[in-house]
């Protein structure tokens, strides 16, 4: 498969806000577009606080490791030989 993949982190305590936000899908698309350079961006639904963020966008033919926790995420640099098989 070719193309790109995006990793999205959703805070589950914000699910009610997400469910009631008709613009949430557009916010997801905008966040993914902003993170194309492997940065971290956040976006919020209607209301205060961040409900989710796009953590990484990468070529779907490559594997990356993303560490998630403490309300953030980061791409972990590692050699392809260090990655476990996805199959």
Please tag this protein with its features:
87 residues, alpha+beta, 3-stranded antiparallel beta sheet, two-stranded antiparallel sheet, 2 helices, 32% strand
Description:
The chain contains 2 helices and 5 strands. It is an alpha+beta fold and 87 residues long. The longest helix is centred in the middle third of the chain and has 11 residues, at 24-34. 18% of the residues lie in helices and 32% in strands. It has one domain.
Tally of individual domains: 1
Strand order within the widest sheet? 1-3-2
> What's the SSE pattern?
EHHEEEE
Could you tell me the mean pLDDT?
79
Any low-confidence stretches, pLDDT <50, length ≥5? none
**Residue share in helices?**
10-25%
Topology (elements, then pairings):
Layout (H helix, E strand, L loop, with lengths): L3 E7 L4 H5 L4 H11 L6 E3 L8 E8 L5 E5 L2 E5 L11
Structure, briefly:
This protein is of the alpha+beta class and 87 residues long. The chain contains two helices and five strands; from the N terminus they run βααββββ. It has one domain (4-82).
């Amino acid at each position: 498969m070719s193309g790109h993949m995006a990793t999205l982190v959703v805070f589950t305590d914000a699910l009610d806000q997400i469910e009631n936000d008709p613009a949430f899908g557009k916010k997801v698309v905008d966040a993914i577009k902003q993170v194309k350079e492997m940065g971290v961006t956040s976006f919020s639904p209607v209301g205060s606080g961040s409900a989710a963020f796009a953590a990484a966008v990468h070529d779907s033919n490559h594997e990356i490791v993303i560490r998630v926790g403490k309300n953030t995420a980061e791409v972990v640099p590692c050699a392809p030989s260090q990655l476990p098989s996805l199959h």
